[in-house]
Amino acid sequence: MEFSTKSGTTLAYDDRGPSDGPVVVLVHGHPFDRTMWNPQAEAVERAGHRVIVPDLRGYGESTVVPGKTLLADFADDIAALLDHLGVERAVVTGLSMGGQIAMEFHRLHRARVSALVLADTSPVAETEDGKVFRNRMADRLLAEGLDGYADEVIDKMLAPYNVTGLPDVAAHVLTMMRTTAPEGAAAALRGRAERPDYRESLAGAEVPVLIVVGADDTYTPVADAEAMQRLIPQSSLVVVDRAGHLPNLEQPERFDAALLGFLGRL
């Protein structure tokens, strides 16, 4: 399905499950698309929830928007999509950049969040060195495309033993990265470099929060997830063994058990 925002951006999305069921929004990371959430969309739908899974602007089948895309732009797109679908509140779930978009959504549209699921992500604002790195990476992706980048980071996106041990998963992750439009990925990198610090807004969260992290995630390690869990009053933490930065794909059964257990307690 597709939806066009007032700005003219077209978002591709899936809307699955009973229309009157509790709503879960799944927000993908960078540089992926909504197929990243296929295992979870199926599991959550089977559990009786309505599942909304968008391709973010610049990714997948959505409009490629060059320049700079702030996390607020992504969050506002999701709010507009929920308006279009007649959804007032949802459990907003995001992984990596998607987790930061979920935090931004909570900061800007707090009343619309019934719960948060933050996977393999960080609430901390970008460092000065990180800003330089992300902008240089944006320049590189525009110049070279994502093929070389995908080959370089596959054993960080997945734990190295899963790159070889789960070849179908590795192939899916590589395909998502290689087929992402460089302009969209670069715009997101430039916007992400300017992200605010979400620790204050998370500390004031009045909804349940589930934090999930792969035990062998090198981008956002377990220690970072533990620090975030200590920060948020109504939060719980699940560490997924035998997984890196994408535990939802590396260990979908364990990730789904954590997610469905959390949803069942709401």
Question: If you had to describe this structure to a student in words, what would you say it looks like?
Answer:
This protein is of the alpha/beta class. It has a single domain, classed as Alpha/Beta hydrolase fold, catalytic domain (Rossmann fold, 3-Layer(aba) Sandwich). The protein contains twelve helices and eight strands. An eight-stranded mixed β-sheet has the order 1-2-4-3-5-6-7-8, sandwiched between helices. A hairpin with a 5-residue loop joins strand 1 and strand 2. The longest helix is centred in the middle third of the chain and has 17 residues, at 128-144. The chain is globular. The two termini are 29 Å apart. The mean pLDDT is 97. GO terms for molecular function: hydrolase activity. Keywords: Hydrolase. Residues 22-251 form the AB hydrolase-1 domain. This is Alpha/beta fold hydrolase. It holds the Pfam family Abhydrolase_1.
CATH architecture: 3-Layer(aba) Sandwich
> How many separate domains?
1
How far is the first residue's CA from the last residue's CA? 29 Å
- Text of the CATH class: Alpha Beta
β-strand amount = 15-25%
Number of strands: 8
Instruction: Give the name of the CATH superfamily.
Output: Alpha/Beta hydrolase fold, catalytic domain
Based on CA atoms alone, the radius of gyration comes out at: 17 Å
Poorly predicted parts: none
Helical stretch count? Answer: 12
Q: Helix fraction? A: 40-55%
Keywords: Hydrolase
InterPro entries: AB_hydrolase_1, AB_hydrolase_fold, AB_hydrolase_sf, Epox_hydrolase-like
Protein name: Alpha/beta fold hydrolase
Domain AB hydrolase-1: 22-251
